[in-house]
């Protein structure tokens, strides 16, 4: 296995939006930084699963698609392409602190040496929560979907969306202008999304099918996809025929790798203090991977945590450098 003998100031683990911004900010602080991402491309879940999803909660970013946010972050990051190292399609397997307070990381491709570590792996490995009823899984990615890669794939189609949270509401509103019709199926009359999104949903043409549960999914070659729905707390059943079903019941996530690294966890999340530092000096965490009192799991919150972590570790590595008091300029 290759051993990278270069000693980096910082290794950022995770190339999603928060990890990308943290790497950019570290470069502005002139930290010798490498970014390691297990996927083949930067962008994390947003790039892999939600390129067409509209992002609403990033300050100064006019609501636009996830792919545009990632593109902007890449453009920002690549301003320092000559100063940093980006390694994609490379997984960190082991992390060990040395007697000299530095760290050796074993990845799927090399051994690498760093003075500090910033964990920004989000929720880790993830999988969509499946339909709670049996159905022909040959329909997956044909008529039953868990992700939307291209909105155009649903143009002029009759679409049913299962779910009642922010993701389901966002997809209903996103697909409404292009689909023939959108039905949103939820087991309660009340939705769990942001108030403004729920207001937009109720004012839209989306057909709200509540409170119903999906009891059966039957493929009708000549009639489309037949969804047998049961009214909550009732024996009443109705059938909804659509071209496609989009399931948005959320995700299960697995951050087991953090435990394997020997990091302090609470409910499978990395515990950090007010400086985003863990109980292991020199290891920091930001984004959805971490927990602390009042933690909010939003991209925008992760963006705010990045400068806190970077400024603190920069001062720890270089005490002679003063932390910037205001937003900095590259020029």
UniProtKB/TrEMBL annotation:
Residues 8-298 form the FAD/NAD(P)-binding domain. FAD binds at residues 37, 45, 50, 126, 288, 328. This is Ferredoxin--NADP reductase. Transmembrane segments: none annotated. Belongs to the ferredoxin--NADP reductase type 2 family. Binds 1 FAD per subunit. Its EC number is 1.18.1.2. Pfam families: Pyr_redox_2. It is an enzyme of class 1 (oxidoreductase). Its cofactor is FAD. The keyword Kinase does not apply. Homodimer. GO terms for molecular function: ferredoxin-NADP+ reductase activity; flavin adenine dinucleotide binding; NADP binding. InterPro entries: FAD/NAD-bd_sf, FAD/NAD-binding_dom, Fd--NADP_Rdtase_type_2, Ferredoxin-NADP_redctase_2. Keywords: FAD, Flavoprotein, NADP, Oxidoreductase. It catalyses: 2 reduced [2Fe-2S]-[ferredoxin] + NADP(+) + H(+) = 2 oxidized [2Fe-2S]-[ferredoxin] + NADPH.
């Amino acid at each position: 296995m290759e051993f990278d003998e270069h000693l980096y100031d910082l290794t950022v683990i995770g190339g999603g939006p928060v990890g990308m911004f943290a790497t950019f900010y570290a470069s502005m602080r002139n930290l010798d930084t490498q970014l390691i991402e297990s996927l083949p491309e930067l962008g994390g879940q947003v790039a892999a699963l939600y390129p067409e999803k509209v992002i609403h909660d990033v300050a100064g970013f006019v609501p636009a698609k996830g792919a545009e946010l990632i593109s902007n972050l890449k453009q920002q990051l690549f301003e320092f392409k000559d100063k940093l190292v980006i390694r994609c399609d490379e997984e960190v397997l082991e992390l060990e602190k040395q007697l000299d307070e530095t760290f050796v990381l074993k990845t799927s491709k090399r051994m690498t040496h760093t003075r500090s570590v910033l964990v920004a792996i989000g929720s880790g490995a993830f999988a969509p929560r499946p339909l709670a009823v049996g159905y022909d899984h040959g329909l997956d990615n044909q008529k039953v979907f868990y992700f939307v890669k291209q909105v155009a794939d649903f143009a002029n189609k009759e679409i049913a969306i299962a779910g009642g949270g922010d993701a389901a509401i966002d997809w209903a509103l996103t697909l409404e202008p292009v689909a023939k019709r959108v039905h949103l199926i939820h087991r309660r009359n009340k939705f769990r999304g942001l108030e403004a999104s729920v207001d937009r949903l109720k004012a839209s043409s989306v057909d709200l099918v509540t409170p119903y549960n999906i009891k059966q999914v039957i493929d009708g070659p000549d009639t489309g996809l037949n969804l047998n729905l049961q009214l909550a707390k009732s024996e009443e059943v109705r059938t909804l025929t659509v071209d496609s079903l989009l399931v948005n019941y959320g995700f299960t996530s697995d951050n087991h790798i953090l435990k394997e690294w020997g990091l302090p966890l609470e409910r499978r999340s990395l515990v950090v203090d007010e400086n985003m530092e863990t109980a292991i000096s020199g290891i920091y965490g930001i984004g959805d991977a971490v927990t602390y009192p009042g933690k909010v799991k939003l991209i925008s919150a992760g963006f705010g945590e990045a400068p806190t972590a970077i400024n603190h570790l920069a001062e720890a590595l270089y005490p002679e450098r003063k932390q910037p008091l205001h937003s900095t300029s590259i020029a």
